[in-house]
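I would like you to sit down with the record closing this message with an eye to the fold:
=====
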Amino acid sequence: MVDLVATWSRADLTYRPGARWSGQPIYAMADELAAATDRAVAEGGGLTAAVAVGSAWNRAIRDGLADPNPYDGVAYGQVDLWSWDQYHASAEGYYLEALMVFGTLTGTDPHRLDGRERAADDLGLDPRVAARLRATASDELRARGRLG
């Protein structure tokens, strides 16, 4: 079994002039990667699933949990899913990725974790943010048919 991760949009390739996705919405790169990953899985060749991490990031942004542009500061009440380089993920971003991998591989709704796992606490995440990230992952996994 081989699963492919469809990753998140890189803010550095979206907001910086002259970059590949400059001038496009932050969602564009993740949507493009998700479509390519879904096509690769559909073609077979031993690929079994697409882990929709970028789609979950897009959902977190659309739902107002995550700030869409780390270059202009983080809006009050939102989290920054990117790290300092606007390429790699922050603790919140990697936690969301881990939830998507967990849900995709096990078919288990991340809501079932409901604070009973240590990862969010070990990462220093606010418990309310961790709960919202679990809800985001759950919603995205359900939308993609990964949960019953």
Residues 127-143 form the longest helix (17 residues). The mean pLDDT is 94. The radius of gyration is 15 Å.
